[in-house]
Amino acid sequence: MKPRKWLDKNNPQNRTADSEHPQKTAFFGYQKVPEDKKAQRVLQHFNTVARKYDLMNTLLSFGIHHLWKRIAVKTMTLKPGDRVLDVCGGTGDLAILAAETVGESGRVIIYDINRAMIDAGLHKVNNSASKKRIGFIQGNAEQLPFPDGYFDAAMVGFGIRNVTRMDQGFKEMCRILKPGGKMMCLEFSRPTAPLFRWLYDIYSFHVMPLLGELIVGSRKAYTHLPESIRTFALPDELTAILKRVGFSQVTEHKLTNGIAMIHLAVKG
């Protein structure tokens, strides 16, 4: 198998352009599926990987995802007493880090559409010193059940690329933030150096699926993972989306040669 190409803004099949296509299709990996079918595909995918999700993240990233998450939460400069929403919060890593910062008077809500992912992280939350500050709500990132201006900060880590209408998800995060509130998006991206990118492609399309088959029992799930990363918006495209939905002061922070990117934005 040859490494797959990254879909960029010069490619007519780019995901961000396709989100406004009149046929209402969305990428699920490299497949184009009807918008109303993607959520079910994503749900099935995470039901498959939930039990071994944290283990696989650590193995596949050689543990560096923990550092990325600490850096990402630190960029938000949260304060004691802040209310924080963790969208697509999954197994709770970002929420636990945020809860350590907001103190006893703060509150962090893990919001995720997938119950299996929430359940997989319950033991971490319950064993953390900040467990009383963390709550859980199951729901769709495109329809947040909170009033306007309710939160001081919102964050999404490695989850927004799975949202069918990504711009709607960001729009909702902007809506529920107070004026001046911060939004942080941590997501995979395209490595900067060509040689590193080539090695990363080899690793992604050969090693990842093999480990997925051996540990999770699903090669398909860990073929979908690198495909979903490669159809995701490039950093400048994501910045443009954030500005379009109402954010300002958008900054980009590259991690590990661009394998991951932090976008920090402020509600204008």
Structure description:
By secondary structure, the protein is an alpha/beta fold. It has a single domain, classed as Vaccinia Virus protein VP39 (Rossmann fold, 3-Layer(aba) Sandwich). It has helices at 15-18, 35-49, 53-60, 64-75, 93-102, 115-126, 166-176, 194-216, 221-230, 235-244; strands at 25-28, 31-34, 83-87, 107-112, 134-138, 151-157, 177-188, 247-255, 260-267. The strands form 2 sheets. Strands 5-4-3-6-7-9-8 form a 7-stranded mixed beta sheet, sandwiched between helices. It has a two-stranded antiparallel sheet with strand order 1-2. Strand 3 (83-87), helix 5 and strand 4 form a beta-alpha-beta unit. Helix 4 crosses helix 5 (93-102) and helix 8 packs antiparallel against helix 9 (221-230). The protein starts with 14 loop residues before the first helix and ends with a strand. The relative contact order is 0.16.
Quick recap:
With 268 residues, the chain is of the alpha/beta class. It contains 10 helices and 9 strands. It has helices spanning 15-18, 35-49, 53-60, 64-75, 93-102, 115-126, 166-176, 194-216, 221-230, 235-244, and strands spanning 25-28, 31-34, 83-87, 107-112, 134-138, 151-157, 177-188, 247-255, 260-267.
Mean pLDDT: 89
Query: H/E element string?
Result: HEEHHHEHEHEEHEHHHEE
Total number of distinct structural domains: 1
Strand residue content: 15-25%
Structural class: alpha/beta
Estimate the global geometry from the Cα principal axes. Answer: globular
Distance between the termini: 46 Å
Supply Rg: 18 Å
